[in-house]
Design a protein that fits this description.
Mean pLDDT: 95
Distance between the termini: 50 Å
CATH architecture of the largest domain: Roll
CATH class of the largest domain: Alpha Beta
Structural class: alpha+beta
Shape: globular
Number of strands: 15
Helix content: 25-40%
Low-confidence stretches: none
CATH superfamily of the largest domain: Dipeptide-binding Protein, Domain 3
Radius of gyration: 23 Å
């Protein structure tokens, strides 16, 4: 199917009081797709007709519209795709496809400081680097129920501090468990703990064109395989994570249809120190280098023990043949992401993925398709492979889920060989709530369901 008709329900309006119309969607989608506006979610719209014509920023003003979007009336618009995309009805539930009010286009920067939406909550105040306050949106017309009058998001640079505040009743919920509590939080009587299988995959990426690690060279291929086989994932999951994860066998997640644990080349994710050394020596025979490799991670998310363990495991295996791995903690997630977005991050860096929508396509196309490279999506390593792209396109045209997932798995076989990123483990959904908090649970994206929370 290459055309969809979208019809809006009556009564919806933004928190500034203006109505949500068909144009609220078509203008927003076109703005994000337009390369002049340099939006991170641009690649989500690459399947819509007219996307390619909006990818040369030097020839654009920023207000050009996707030709595949056509407004029929205030409550109706059509979407024409370049080719069939069986996942499209699922994709549009992601936040990248949300509508925008007219006030956004008048001053995007000011809008960022005082955002307007049409969801369960409305923005009230932002104390930068401290907290963001939201109030219940009385005009919300959706099906989800809100059990509280609002939510305040407090900003922490230390997972330990947030956990201590939950223990003391000064914070209601956190979805990040510090390393110091990972083995004990489920037995902590001062909190309500949550620990169930989740959908998040943790990996690290080495840019595809990084010297000595280039994906399209034999040397780079050998070094990536060697490094992957030098990491003892089982030990990290058990000893560092305290069992709150599962060793990765592919690029998706056990929580998503299409996951597989026995694909061809999945042995490249298994600990094999002898093979790792052999492959490293073969790479050195092609081109010798000093062996220095920095692993960067966001220190405010509790990843220090994980990346120290990765570095230690890699050095224990490959140190004697030349690898000199070191860990580089970046103080905040924002600084970390800015460096990645600016392509100034050197060496390896953490690249966890929380799915945007429940499909294996989201784990693959959005991270490894060429359309998502160069800052247009989540392809942070700027990986490109025409065969992988072709398989993604083929899969999108298949309506039968099992048949579609098989094609995505064919793409994974290539990814497991080339390793544009190196999967580590799947994170459980973990968190804690303070005493007196009711309705604490977590969703399929490993996030607390804030609208269901209340306090006695």
């Amino acid at each position: 199917m290459t055309q969809y008709t979208v019809r809006l329900k009556d009564g919806w309006k933004f928190t500034d009081g203006t109505p949500v119309t068909a144009e609220s969607f078509t203008k927003a989608w076109s703005y994000v797709a337009n390369a002049k506006n340099a939006q991170k979610c641009s690649s989500f719209f690459s399947m819509i007709k007219g996307y390619d014509e909006l990818q040369d920023p030097d020839k654009l003003q920023g207000d050009e519209q996707l030709s595949g979007l056509n407004v029929v009336d205030d409550k109706t618009f059509t979407v024409d795709l370049n080719s069939p995309d069986s996942i499209f009805p699922v994709k549009v539930g992601y936040i990248a496809f949300a509508p925008l009010p007219e006030s956004f286009y008048k001053d995007p920067k000011a809008f960022g400081e005082n955002p307007v939406g049409n969801g369960m909550y409305k923005f009230t105040h932002w104390d930068h680097n401290s907290q963001i306050e939201l109030a219940k949106n009385a005009d919300y017309k959706g099906v989800q129920k809100v059990a509280n009058d609002g939510v305040t998001f407090k900003i922490y640079t230390s997972a330990d501090s947030a956990y201590s505040d939950v223990q003391g009743g000064n914070l209601d919920v956190t979805g990040t468990i510090p390393a110091s509590a990972i083995k004990t939080f489920e037995k902590d009587s001062s909190v309500e703990a949550y620990n169930k299988a989740g959908s998040v995959i943790q990996a690290f990426t080495i840019p595809s064109d990084y010297e000595h690690w280039k994906v399209d060279t034999e040397e780079g291929h050998l070094r990536r395989l060697a490094l992957s086989m030098a990491i003892e994932r089982e030990e990290i999951v058990e000893k560092v994570l305290g069992g709150t994860g599962t060793v990765a066998t592919d690029f998706s997640s056990p929580a998503i249809p299409g996951y597989a644990d026995n694909l061809k080349n999945s042995e490249n994710l298994k600990y094999n120190p002898a093979k790792a050394k052999e492959l490293w020596k073969k790479a050195d025979a092609i081109s010798k280098y000093d062996g220095k490799l920095v692993f960067s991670y966001d220190a405010d998310k509790g990843f220090k023990p994980v990346f120290e363990a990765i570095v230690n495991s890699a050095n224990n295996v490959l140190g004697e043949v030349g690898l000199k791995a070191t860990a580089n903690p970046v103080p905040t997630f924002q600084e970390f992401r800015n460096s990645i977005d600016e392509r100034s991050m050197k060496g390896a860096f953490r690249t966890g993925w929380t799915p945007d929508y429940p499909s294996i396509e989201d784990y693959l196309y959005q991270i490894y398709d060429s359309a998502a490279a160069d800052g247009k999506g989540a392809n942070d390593g700027d990986y490109r492979n025409a065969d992988v792209d072709a398989l993604f396109t083929k899969a999108m045209g298949i309506t039968n889920q099992d048949e579609r997932n098989k094609v995505y798995q064919d793409a994974e076989v290539i990814l497991l060989d080339e390793l544009p990123s190196i999967p580590l483990y799947y994170s459980n959904a973990v968190g804690v709530a303070a005493a007196g908090v009711k309705g604490f649970t977590m969703d399929w994206q490993n996030q607390p369901i804030f609208n269901e929370l209340s306090k006695s």
